[in-house]
Design goal:
Layout lengths: L23 E4 L22 E7 L11 E8 L6 H6 L8 H8 L1 E3 L26 E3 L4 E4 L4 E2 L14 H69 L1
Antiparallel strand pairs: 1-2, 1-7, 2-3, 3-5, 3-6, 4-5
Length: 234
């Protein structure tokens, strides 16, 4: 969901205390990020040049220009609804709400569709600038606050676009639930892999034990045969 212009203004140090959870900001193109600033190494190139929602950050009295903040990437799916986006991939859903849930997104209100239902609302009746807007909740990333720019091309206040308290709560809870589900699935997969390794180790030990028993049996038979031969020669 890149803006129609490349103009942006990085957040100034004096504006930092006004950045709270739910604030909509902008992650500039990768080559525009200050070289000395830190960004999550897992951020894909496609995540840059997109709006982001602040999921969590230090309190106003503690936050600094270099503080790490948690962000969720926002997208417009190139102007498509998430339902149409999935349909283009051959995945059909009964409604936009189900499509958003399946793809791991929450819909955000836009200026062109201010009365849309089942959307995250912005304060003061504002709406995102594209015809469709979704925030990803499958995973979040961390960046230094100073790499972020103001949403709205730097012409408005740093907190001009912010989710309502209710919408912010829903975003944070949705992200945390997804994280727990992902962690649970990861733990389950890890336990499954461990059980597989234990089974393989058990089979390996059983095979080794069987080989040892067989070796002892063969040695016993060889000794018996040798003893018989010696007695026969006397």
């Amino acid at each position: 969901m890149a803006p129609t212009t490349t103009n942006f203004r990085l957040v100034a140090e004096a504006e930092v205390p006004r950045v709270l959870a739910g604030t909509i900001m902008f992650l500039p193109p990768k080559d525009k990020i200050p070289k000395s600033a830190w960004t999550d190494p897992e951020l894909l190139d496609g995540a840059f040049n997109h709006p982001v929602a602040i999921v969590s950050c230090p309190q106003p009295k503690e936050i600094q220009h270099s503080s790490h903040v948690e962000i969720a990437i926002m997208t417009s799916f190139h102007g498509l609804t998430v339902k149409a986006h999935l349909a283009a991939k051959g995945i059909h859903t009964a409604s936009g709400t189900l499509a958003a849930k399946r793809s791991g997104h929450l819909r955000v209100v836009t200026a062109s569709k201010p009365h849309a239902k089942d959307v995250l609302k912005l304060r003061d009746g504002k709406g995102m600038k594209r015809d469709s807007c979704y925030v990803g909740i499958r995973r979040t990333y961390a960046v230094e606050l100073r790499v972020l720019a103001l949403y709205g091309f730097g012409r408005e206040e740093v907190d001009a676009y912010r989710l309502t308290a209710h919408a912010t709560k829903k975003l944070v809870e949705s992200v945390r639930v997804r994280a727990k589900v992902k962690e649970k699935a990861k733990a389950k997969e890890k336990a499954k892999e461990k059980a597989k390794m234990v089974k393989q180790e058990g089979e390996k030990k059983g095979s080794t034990k069987k080989m040892r028993v067989e070796s002892v049996r063969v040695r016993g038979e060889d000794s018996a045969e040798k003893g018989g031969e010696e007695r026969g020669c006397k």
